[in-house]
Specification:
Elements lengths: L3 E7 L1 H14 L2 E10 L2 E8 L1 H18 L4 E7 L6 H4 L3 H12 L6 H9 L5 H10 L5 H11 L1 H9 L3 H8 L10 H5 L2 H13 L1
Antiparallel strand pairs: 1-3, 1-4, 2-3
């Protein structure tokens, strides 16, 4: 994350007006909109330091045009700690994932039959699965889901490090998380998205 710009307002309408002004004023990316509570709404953007400063100033000015009393605070963090990326994951993405996790996965009948048989996989086949996952790609996972079933594929994916899961997620066109959000997604989020992708 290069720079982080934050604006907190009272009410959603002015928050949207602020976000619109920020995105039009400079080359920044909208990270999230958060309902803090008590009518407070926080908007976060990221980008180059100068662009974020310009965007936050424009967003604050847009809120002041509506009413000075509706702007609670504005702030720019030039080089935020990498640890903040874990905090700044989109709330919308989290809610979507929670919904997907609650839904039972739709698994094809053939996959269910194969899942029952998978318990007796010979050791040499298990070794080949591990070799495929040394450098995982979409084709290898597709093949694993077809041959071994969704649950076996998910178990194999759980053994991967987060960075490999993020790189793998970028191979998918219709993946539930895209762009910069993949870089911020944790292991649980990524696994939930793989489950949702193959559960369709």
């Amino acid at each position: 994350m290069q720079a982080l710009g934050l604006i907190e307002t009272i009410g959603l309408v002015v928050a949207i007006e602020s976000a619109d002004a920020m995105l039009k004023a400079a080359d920044v990316t909208l990270l999230e909109k958060t309902f803090v509570g008590g009518g407070l709404v926080s908007i976060a953007v990221t980008g180059e330091v100068a662009a974020v400063k310009a965007a936050v100033d424009a967003g604050a000015a847009a809120v002041r045009q509506i009413s000075n009393s509706l702007l609670v605070s504005q702030h720019v963090i030039p080089r935020p700690s990498e640890e903040l990326e874990n905090v700044m994951v989109s709330v919308t993405v989290l809610r979507t994932l929670e919904t997907e996790i609650e839904k039972p996965a739709k698994v094809k009948t053939t996959a269910k039959v194969e899942t029952k048989i998978e318990k007796s996989i010979p050791e040499d086949e298990q070794v080949s699965i591990e070799k495929e996952l040394d450098d995982p790609n979409k084709e290898a996972i597709d093949k694993m889901v077809i041959e071994k079933g969704l649950e076996e594929a998910l178990e194999a994916l759980k053994k991967l490090k987060v960075i490999k899961l993020r790189n793998l997620a970028r191979d998918y066109k219709d993946f539930g998380i895209a762009g910069r959000l993949i870089s911020k997604a944790d292991k649980q989020m990524l696994l939930a998205e793989f489950k949702a992708y193959y559960g369709k």
